[in-house]
Design brief:
globular, mainly alpha
């Protein structure tokens, strides 16, 4: 059998085993790559190890370390709480502020940070406004999904790294615009579906805030320095973030043990580990085989919609980042194979929006955390039906994947490229 086909089948098996056995896909992928490389005799040790991206590791480690420090420090949450309180008397603005706040946090710190932020801050907002808990959680997390792929965020740098290997330059601005449009539509549909316009208002929203401590001011200063170095000076995001992190630790903003404990090592291992097996899939011709199969069943009109739906289905059985790492390498060849009006960023947008739309499933980290956050609140749990919420979130996830796919078929994601 063709080694490229074998590599593809092993990749699928690794993702399936990781999902059903709840194991880290990155570790499985590295072990599978070693076995495939040595058993086939087509790869030397050096060639196997070459699939591990040290630059991606530094980028993810530096950015997640910095934002772990800032998140643990609490400075960013205090700033966002103040922002929400500014609009406290305009209760109707709360869903908008939640969407924008989550967008900003995610744009800086990535999707997981945005998810954690919104789940933590939304509960007191629900108490103050009387809005439907699922509605506010969906709207907030839609904002987090919308802003996660920027040049500053860890998620955006993963995409940049994967695009660079295909000699595709940039495109994150257009991707972010497309993500924001799609997630804003999803948030708007949630507002209508859960009848946010009929929600009983209970008065002014007022979240508890505390004065920023000297350590929090220093942490915010470090964040500003990093953004200036990356956006204005064009310096490497990972190296800058790592340097700022070391300076903050040395300044006593946070102790070293706590800082390193905040790093999502599982995610870093997953992304970089899958890269080892993915490198074999690419070099063995597996991606070329996959793109030809997809191209045989699609054309320039249907490719975006089909890719969006495929990414959504994959995301139900994998993580969003797992889908990103698996499908993004196909973008360049698929566009070249199909041609027509299909664009690289348009196709990439369809894939990532599809996977993000599926994340509201209760079987995923986003949907699961939404339900557990609401059910864990002592005030909300008495009126919260877990079984009904589980079914609602799953059906919502299916519906939003369908909506995102229809938007892709309509060519919405090709407007900005």
């Amino acid at each position: 059998m063709n080694i490229g086909i074998v590599a593809l089948l092993i990749l699928v098996a690794v993702i399936a085993i990781g999902f059903f056995r709840k194991l880290n896909v990155g570790v499985l992928a590295m072990a599978a790559a070693v076995i495939l490389g040595y058993v086939s005799g087509d790869y030397t040790t050096k060639e196997i190890v070459a699939g591990y991206s040290s630059s991606l590791f530094i980028t993810l480690f530096g950015l997640t370390l910095l934002f772990g420090i800032i998140t643990t420090n609490g400075c960013l949450e205090q700033v966002m709480r103040r922002l929400i309180n500014v609009f406290g008397k305009m209760v109707w603005m709360v869903p908008v502020i939640l969407f924008l706040s989550a967008w900003c946090v995610s744009a800086l710190a990535g999707g997981f940070a945005g998810l954690a932020f919104i789940c933590g801050i939304t509960i007191p907002v629900i108490h103050a406004t009387g809005y439907d808990p699922l509605m506010l959680m969906i709207i907030g997390n839609a904002g987090a999904q919308a802003g996660r792929y920027t040049r500053v965020s860890p998620d955006g740098n993963i995409v940049l790294n994967l695009l660079a290997k295909q000699e595709i330059d940039g495109g994150l601005m257009s991707l972010t615009i497309n993500m924001t449009i799609a997630m804003f539509i999803i948030a708007s549909l949630a507002f209508v579906f859960f009848r946010g316009y009929r929600t009983k208002k209970t008065g002014t929203v007022r979240l508890e805030i505390e004065p920023l401590s000297p350590k929090q001011w220093v942490a915010l200063g470090g964040l500003v320095v990093m953004i200036i170095c990356i956006m204005a000076l064009g310096l490497d995001s990972g190296l800058v973030a790592l340097t700022v992190s070391v300076c903050l630790i040395a300044a006593g903003v946070i102790d070293e043990k706590t800082a390193f404990h905040s790093v999502p090592w599982n995610t870093i291992i997953m992304v970089t580990g899958v890269g080892v097996l993915m490198n074999m899939v690419i070099t063995s011709g597996g991606i070329e085989i996959l793109t030809k199969v997809i191209a045989a069943f699609t054309n320039s009109v249907t490719a975006s919609g089909a890719s969006c739906m495929t990414a959504g289905v994959m995301s139900w059985f994998s993580s969003t980042l797992g889908v990103v790492v698996t499908l993004t390498p196909t973008v360049g060849e698929l566009v070249e194979e199909i041609g027509g009006s299909l664009t690289q960023i348009g196709l990439l947008s369809a894939m990532l929006i599809g996977s993000s739309s599926a994340c509201f499933s209760p079987a995923s980290s986003v949907g699961g955390l939404i339900i557990s956050s609401i059910a864990g609140d002592p005030i909300l749990r008495d009126e919260f039906d877990n079984e009904k919420a589980f079914a609602t979130m799953f059906l919502w996830s299916v519906a939003m994947v369908a909506v995102s796919s229809l938007l892709a078929l309509a060519g919405i994601y090709n407007i900005f490229h």
